[in-house]
Design goal:
Elements lengths: L3 E4 L3 H12 L5 E4 L15 E2 L6 H17 L4 E2 L3 E5 L2 H16 L4 E4 L12 E5 L3 E3 L1 H14 L3 E3 L11 E4 L5 H6 L10 E2 L3 E2 L12 E4 L5 E5 L2 E5 L6 E2 L10 H11 L14 E6 L2 E5 L5 H18 L13 H4 L10
Parallel strand pairs: 1-2, 1-10, 2-9, 5-13
Antiparallel strand pairs: 3-8, 4-8, 5-7, 6-7, 11-16, 12-15, 13-14, 14-15, 17-18
Helix pairs in contact: 1-4
The protein binds flavin-adenine dinucleotide.
Flavin-adenine dinucleotide (FAD) binds next to helix 1.
Length: about 325
């Protein structure tokens, strides 16, 4: 039987390998040059929706939901997706899509704005209750586990091109053009950097808060544990592999969040500074140094040693205290690379 090598153990490669094994393929290797879910899959928002605007996409998404449902509530939280339109044109677009989606069996409906979400400026909303959210890396690890159980050989830190095979599946996400070029195939795929922001902990976020999306602006947010994860399409697309955090959008995104979800007004985006000091009885932390941990490590080591052994240090560690997130303190330090 042919040996099939699947290149890339992200959400896509893991699913291809799993389904190959389910359908009886006996010689399948799932190879990742890094680790499982170490590409885009490990960084995604985790939204799972069926509300697309063309039939082929709706079908793929609809059947994927069935699969997520079978995985169960541990993997997939069916909190729904609510699209908000703030203009009549936007609402007409949502209603047109809704007709298509409903025609394909997707239960999309007109709804009121969900509790806690500001609705004064909303012309109308549609929701699909069977949409939801998941952890892409967790689901991917589970699929890889199931694939391995069915006999798939999983190889991390392995470039797929190096393996003997009869068939190669290129599922390398943004690196796919590079992987295919080595096979003499040109794939017109290029990386696009997208950014998620996560708020400080917010008390009392409802467990059933749906994914909320503003149609016209693309601003959207979901609950993840006790925080909100927020995102929006960048005004100017950031093509390339550069993953530098763009802090210039923080204020705008927090303002949008406070407007749309007033209970989150005043929240912050945890800063890019470390946590240093006592964090619980008998527990100390020195972590989260962004791009400056090495250069500060000598003094940090000394400060923490003094604190642990002598109960005090000459360094001012207050800007690095864990409690600063509860206070909503914003660090004035700007030179963080
Ligand atoms: C900020 C953000 C938010 C997102 N939100 C959502 C969302 O809400 N819902 C959603 O559905 N999608 C979302 N996405 C998109 C989603 O993350 C991707 O579409 C999906 O993860 C793609 O999976 P993949 O397996 O194709 O690629 P990846 O996860 O990038 O996996 C590719 C893998 O290939 C490996 N690789 C590369 N070259 C080789 C080689 N030569 N040999 C072997 N392995 C190789 C890499 O190491 C990597 O692990 C989001 C993405 C981002 C960045």
């Amino acid at each position: 039987m042919a040996r099939i090598v699947v290149a890339g153990a992200g959400a896509i490669g893991a699913s291809v390998a799993y389904h190959l094994a389910l359908r009886g393929a006996r010689d399948v290797v799932l190879a990742d040059r890094g680790e499982i879910a170490s590409g885009s899959t490990g960084k995604a928002m985790g939204g799972v929706r069926q509300q697309f605007s063309t039939e082929p996409e709706v079908r793929l998404a609809r059947d994927s939901i069935r699969f997520f449902e079978e995985l169960g509530a541990r993997w997939f939280q069916q909190v729904g997706y609510v699209f908000l339109a703030t203009t009549d044109e936007g609402l007409a677009e949502l209603e047109e899509r809704m007709e298509l989606q409903r025609g394909l069996g997707v239960p999309v409906e007109r709804v009121d704005v969900p509790a806690g979400v500001r609705g004064e400026d909303v012309a109308g909303a549609v929701a699909c209750r069977s949409d939801g959210v998941a952890s892409p890396p967790a689901v991917t690890h589970e699929l890889v586990r199931r694939a391995a159980e069915l006999g798939v050989e999983v190889r991390e830190r392995t470039r797929a091109e190096e393996l003997e095979r009869d068939v190669l599946v290129v599922a390398c996400g943004p690196w796919s053009a590079e992987a295919a070029a080595g096979q003499g195939v040109e794939l017109p795929i290029r990386p696009l950097c997208r950014q998620l922001l996560e708020t400080a902990p917010l008390p009392d976020l409802p467990a059933d808060l749906p994914m909320v999306i503003e149609l016209e602006t693309t601003f959207h947010f979901r609950r993840r544990d006790d925080r909100l994860r927020i995102a929006m399409v960048d005004a100017a697309p950031r093509w390339g592999f550069d993953e530098v955090v763009d802090e210039s959008v923080f204020d705008d995104r927090l303002r949008r969040l406070a407007h749309r979800y007033p209970a989150a007004a005043g929240t912050t985006i945890p800063d890019a500074h470390p946590i240093v000091g006592r964090v619980a009885d008998g527990v100390y932390a020195a972590c989260g140094f962004s791009g400056h941990g090495f250069m500060q490590s000598p003094a940090v080591g000394r400060a923490l040693a003094e604190l642990i052994l002598e109960g005090k240090t000459g360094y001012d560690l207050s800007p690095f205290a864990l409690e600063r997130f509860e206070r909503g303190a914003v660090s004035p330090e700007e030179v963080v690379l």
